[in-house]
Fold this protein.
Amino acid sequence: MSRHQEAKGKARRVAEITAKRLVISLIAQPVPKSVQKEIDDFYRSSFKEDCEGKKAYHGGSPRKPECELLTKLVLHIAPQDTLDWGLGDGAACMAIVLARRELGFSTRHVSLDPFQYLIAKNVGLIQLQSRGLTGEVDFREDRSEEFLTDAIRNGRKFDFMFIDGDHSAGAKMTDAYLADRATKPGGVIAFHDALFDSTAAAVTWLLNDRKYELIALACEPPWKRAARCARHVRRLGISYARRVIPHLGISIAALRKS
Ligand SMILES: C[S@@+](CC[C@H](N)C(=O)[O-])C[C@H]1O[C@@H](n2cnc3c(N)ncnc32)[C@H](O)[C@@H]1O
């Protein structure tokens, strides 16, 4: 083999995502009735009341099936110490907290959003309050990078994180780097919008460099997953399309720290 061919082979190996995989079949797992009732109610309308009494639509929340999936995932892994950012309209936070309530945890879930008032006009906090969940949430107006840096400095670690904050490339990589350092061994980091370039880069880094295990969220029929791969392969690359996209829960990626 020529030196050129050898170098090409090596580059291909480096670009390849070398993920171990853990399959969690969530397709048949039901969402508890009381949780489903709240999720149905949340998604009845996209317009949510804000702190100025206006009905507003912000977008960006996980879709209803993603929230159901999030609930199932939390119920399955039963994480004690949990964290999500950003709170936004509160859909993901609600799903996590309702699942935690089912599990009977007494500790509070931590939710971050530095722009909860500025951008969301407190819609997320109002949603939590109207569903009687405020007491189960430790809400902080902190940026993820600041909260995580403090957590690392104080030796605080989490069993589960849901990342849905700043989607820029730098912020997402920073989130992944700090999230890794603040996650307990065996803990799970989940990302919304795993089909964004920034999230794909963060997921790839955790799989390749930090040896996370990709959780195959088997929650959709194979044809749907294949269609998603075909749609995104050109932009996100063959390796991500082959190794990661088929195992997403719609656009949620979940990774387990070894
Ligand atoms: C797509 S929305 C989140 C939707 C939310 N997860 C839901 O379920 O409705 C993104 C949120 O991230 C927040 N955000 C932006 N930068 C952030 C940061 N550095 N740390 C934490 N949250 C951030 C924004 O204020 C915004 O509310």
